[in-house]
Amino acid sequence: MSTAYEPRTIAFGAEIIHPPLQQLDVRQVQTIHNELYQRPELAYQNFQVAQDGVHLTNPGMAPGQVSAALVTPDRIALREEFRNITIEDFATRVVNVASTIYQRLGVQQSIAQVFWARSLISPNHVTDSRELVAHRMLAHGSDALAGFGRPIAQTALSLSFAPDAQGKPAVDVRIAPWLQEPRSLWIEVIGKYTRPVPTEEVTGLGASLYSTYSFLTGPVLNFVNRYDRAE
Q1: Coil, helix or strand for 76?
Q2: How is residue 213 annotated by DSSP?
Q3: Fewer beta carbons within 10 Å, N or C terminal of the chain?
Q4: CA distance linking residue 201 with residue 131, whole number of Å
């Protein structure tokens, strides 16, 4: 982990994908909702059936807050945004919610998993993150964009890394100024895993989440630090 910054993680997400069920048993999902409600660290207050699946949610206590799980015939999608939770909290939720749903619905395995984390950092030597991205990370700085003949509203860096022979997953990275507060830099890392995970091993999904987050706190922050220098 890079020691140059203290990332303020603002969101975690996960999609646990499985072979499609012929039909989603809404009554069984209602039972699962009631079961999760007995555990405060896993509970969702609201249950709603919609065209895209069953939504389990907690009310937001501030603008932008999200705490939700979507259950569909082929996946479980979980999101926690602006709720001041730790990666340990989210790992606990992912592992236990997925394990409970798979056991109750009779899902045999997950065939793919996607995890993402979003964090904010404060650069050490740049007071405006737009300068860091547009003038330092971009070759030739903003002059390279002059040919478009239009003022630039935002510059972002997007990177995609392919999986390798050692089993490391595909990873997408996006680095951009945080327009709500230009002093901060916004970073998103998405890890894409394609290995089958049997239901009895779903408890190991936390390792993939931690691996994704470690890519953010390690290689990505080290990359940012290369350009965040006093001039």
Answers
A1: strand
A2: H
A3: C
A4: 45
Residue 89 domain-assigned (yes or no): yes
In a domain, 173, yes or no: yes
Average pLDDT rounded to a whole number, residues 115-120: 98
Tell me if 3 is assigned to some domain: no
Question: CA quadruple 73, 50, 13, 32: dihedral positive or negative?
Answer: negative
* pLDDT number for residue 44: 97
The Cα-based distances of 72 to 94, 98, 119, 231 in angstroms read: 15, 12, 28, 52
State pTM to two decimals. Answer: 0.93
Number of domains in the chain: 1
In the predicted structure, residue 203 carries a pLDDT above the cut 90: no
Tell me the average pLDDT across 137-150: 77
Q: Is residue 1 part of a domain?
A: no
Residue 119 burial class via C-beta count within 10 angstroms: exposed 0-12, middle 13-18, buried 19 and up: buried
Residue type for position 219: P
Question: Residue 138 has which token pair?
Answer: 């971009």
Tokens of 196: 């089958």
Full residue range of the structural domain in which residue 148 is found: 8-227
Distance CA 44, CA 90 (A): 14
